[in-house]
Each structure stands twice: as C-alpha cells, then as structure tokens.
Give the backbone structure.
Amino acid sequence: MNAAAISAHIEPIRHEYAEGRSLILPALKYAQTEKGHLTREDIEAVAEATGFSAAYVESVASFYDRLYLQPTGQRVVSVCVTLSCMLRGSDELMERICDRAGVSHHGGTSEDGMITVQEAQCLGYCDHAPAVQVDAEQTRGPLTLDDADALVDELRTSPRPDELWR
Amino acid sequence: MPIRNVVYRQREAGQVLTDLSDYRRAGGYEALRTALTEMDRDETVYAFVRSGLRGRGGAGFPMGRKASFIPKDSVLPAYVVCNADESEPGTFKDRELMETNPFQLLEGITLAGYAIGAVRGYIYIRGEYEHQARILDAAIAQARTAGFLGQGVAGSGFDFDITLYRGAGAYICGEETALLESLEGKRGQPRLKPPFPAVAGLYASPTLINNVETLSALPAIIEHGADWYASMGTEKSTGTKLFSISGHVMKPGNYEIVLHDTTLRELVYDIAGGFRPGREFAAAWVGGSSVNVLGPESLDTPLDYESMAEAGSSLGSAGCIVMDDSGSIVRATLRLAQFYRHESCGKCTPCREGTLWLERILQRIVDGEGRMEDLELIESLAGRMVGRVLCALADTGVLPVTSAVRRFRDDFVHAIENGGVPRPEPMMEVPVGG
C-alpha cells in the first residue's frame, strides 16, 4: 500500500492522539489489509505516512502476532489451542484442518497459497470450543471434524474479501 | 438459579442493545444525565468508592480508590483507558458486553471521565475482537450523533470523546503498562512501576485504567446508588460478577451472579449443567488460568474475592475453566505453560527463559522422559521467576504449574514412572448447551 493511501486513513484520526506515534499501529493494520501481510514497501510507506523511521516501524510490527512480515495464504485460519478448546478437541481439530489444507500439523501455508493454518492462543470463544478464527473477522465454533473439512473447502473456493483484517 | 442481571442489562432487557434507542428504552444514559446534572466530580468518585466495586479484569483493586488517585492539579490532561484486551484463558465475559451492550460501556467510560475530569477515553480492544470492534465503532458514531460524546456531553459543560484502538495479537497488552506502551505506538512491553498510571500513564498523563466489566458496572451504580450496589455480596466483595465458564461442563457460557451467594459447586453443577453421565469434577482454574488450580475439596468455596483467597486461589477474571476426570492434569498444565511461554514479551530474562524451561520440563514429563527431580526443578525454577520481573505474567503464570505439581503430585509422579501421559479423548461433538 502506498503512503498516500495510508495517510488518507490516519490523518482524519490524528487529532485523537497527543502523540503521532500512536498512529503507527492503526497504519500498520490498515496497510496489511491490502495483501494480508506487510512487505518492505509497506513498512516504508507506513514510515513515510507517520514520520517515523522504517527501522522503528518494523520493530513495532515484529512484536505483534497478527502483523505478518512474511507472506501468508489468502485466508488465515487460527485454531485456538488453549486449555478450554483443548479439552473440547482442538488438537484433533488442528490436525484435521492441517490435513485438509495439506500442511504439517504445526501449521503453514497450503501449496496453492490459499490458506495459512496457525495455532492461536485463547480467542475468547471458549463457550463455543473448539473454536477457530478466519482472519480476525469471523470466529466460529464449536467445530466438528467434518466441519473442519467443510471450512477448508469453503475457504478454498470463496472469494477473497476486499480488505484483509487479521 | 441465583442469576442477577445487573451488568448484563441486555439479558434483563431480553434483547441486544446495539441500537441507541433500544439502550435508552432500557434506561440507558439516565445515570450519566443524573451525574452531570446532580453530582459534582468528587461526589461521583465518592459513589464509586462507596460502591466497593473492585477491578474486574483480574487484580481486584478497588475502582473508586484508583479513581481517587488521579491528581486534580495536573497541568497535563487526564485520560480514561478501557482495557478491552480480554485475553486471559477461559475469559469471554467482556466479549458479550461489547457485542450486545456497547453503549453501557461507553456510558461507563464517560462517567469515569466525568469523575476524574478526563478529556478523552480510549478503548484498547484486542485485535482478535475485530467483530466486536466494529460494533463499538458503530456505537461510538451513534453516541456522537446523539450528543452523548463530543462538545458538551448531553447538553452539559463537559467535553469528552472516546477513541477505539485495535491491538494486534499480544496477551501481554492486557497488562496495564504494556497496554499503554502499545497505545503509544510502541512494542507492548510492561513499564517499571512506579510511577503508576494514575500519576504518569498515557503520554505521561494521569490515567485511569479499568476493565470493560468494571466500567460497564458504573451506570447501574450511579442509577441505583452506591449503597444498593454495596448491599449485594460481602463487605469486601460487593455487587455482581460475570463468570465465564468453559471446559468439560455441559452448559459453557457467561453467567452473572451476586458475589458470595454461589459456591463453585453450584456454578459448575447447577448453573453450568455439570458433566457428561459418568464423569466427575477433577479440577478448576476459577480466575482464568493465572491462578492456583483447585481440586474437588474446594467445590464448596463461595465465589468471592476473600473466600477464593482463603481456598488458596484467586477470583481473578472469573474465567472458570473446568476439567472432568477424563482429562489429564499433567497435559492441561503443559498446555498452560505453553501459553505463558508463547505470551512472554521477552523483556525480563527470568520470564523469557523461565517460561521456556517450564514448558520443556513439562513436555518431557508428558513425553515419558521426565525424571523425579523435575518436580523439585519446577519449584526451584518458579521460585527464581517470581518477584524478579516487571509484571504479573511470570508472577502469576507460574501459579497453575506449581499448584498443579503440589495438589496433583500423584498424577505427575505417575506420568514420570509410567512413560508419560497419552492424549485423552476430548469432549467433542457435544452440542453447546448440553
């Protein structure tokens, strides 16, 4: 994403913060919606739009799990594996989703580049365990193993959203 | 059923209150109007103090006292920060509040802002709650249009607005000073305290930080009175508390109960529907996972701050994770150790290294490569973490591990002597709600 598009997103909210540094995280999140991850060019564009150095912006980005500095699949599936979900079968669910997506049981990106599967820490959806999240937008659960197959198949064939909020 | 929907006003109203007109019909914004027209700032803070409301995020610090720490003579503007980074394992009560009753939170933040003389409130919401963030965005826009935020709130002379700030995936940002760092556009790593946020918080300004549930309780306290609120519960545990219950129970969910009126047994069996036929209670992490685990002997403990402390644990966030006798305490403990290892921000060496080693030791016990001296090693390692770090992540993150090794020592010994612990059959394909 270019610096002008990022500026158009953050300038209207700049007055809400006493220090412009606070705009870095909103800028990074917005920049990521274009490709689903942040490239070197995205980091530089955020640096230009916010007025901080690219090195500093990258140091912020690298702290957060949901800012991706490496390419991801078109959709990211986060499988909650924390205790409440584990008791309800999240390990089995993780393995099934990985199998269907064709990645190792540790997660990864499918060969066709459509789906990234990753483990997630507690998603706050324990009353629907085992739960998964598609990007940061949809949280679903409880999922059966058959549901897991259907989810992967659905994501393979559904159109990519215009903006990828992760 | 001892359910009392005070903070869960949407349940009392029988509908989601995401539309401002519905919230107003349910009595919404009457408390703010009362405070702005009939109470001065000190009286508002004093009402919070008298209510006895304690911080619902986990630490349980008296909310009114915290508000009273905000200096009145500061040359810097004051802020209210709402901690909506709900990430404690097993805790999902704030999610429901934001999804179904967002205006009550906005009203609570505005009341807190009026009480301390703040110019702006910030809601720091975890990145994974994008759905809830959009609901709050829409609610803030409605509140601005209706004059409940902005210049001259509700026709008064009080100017106040609220900004929603999205996190990006980091449990540590629920720690208040890490949250402030993140909100300032930095890596979310905790600060050395003091100074405390009340004196030097966001942008080094006086800052009141409270959890979603705490702030959501303020409208009812102003509307019905501090004495009414304090009449529920005990002297040190007043009012109602939202409990999230999950794990092996038949009816996982959120339940609002008056503190002290319900025991853990009643919560697990009567409210949350107990277990599958043939299964029995084995263990519970009542206050989220950053607490000492409890066994069946603690089932008759009343659910309030002081009783939970007497039982050797903590009420914490009241995110109650329950395991029946089909589960493995050793594997459950490993899973929690993995959580803290993953979420350690890495700033303090005892936490960064200690959480890693706790996980490795527990992993080898699960894998059948454990040694009997590992149990003493866990104790010794935990002792070298606690009190040697900036924040509570390691201080409380070791609790589920050390308490499990002490309370369920036989299970760990059995694992070490018998080649580890096989993965138990999970409770799957049981519909939510039994």
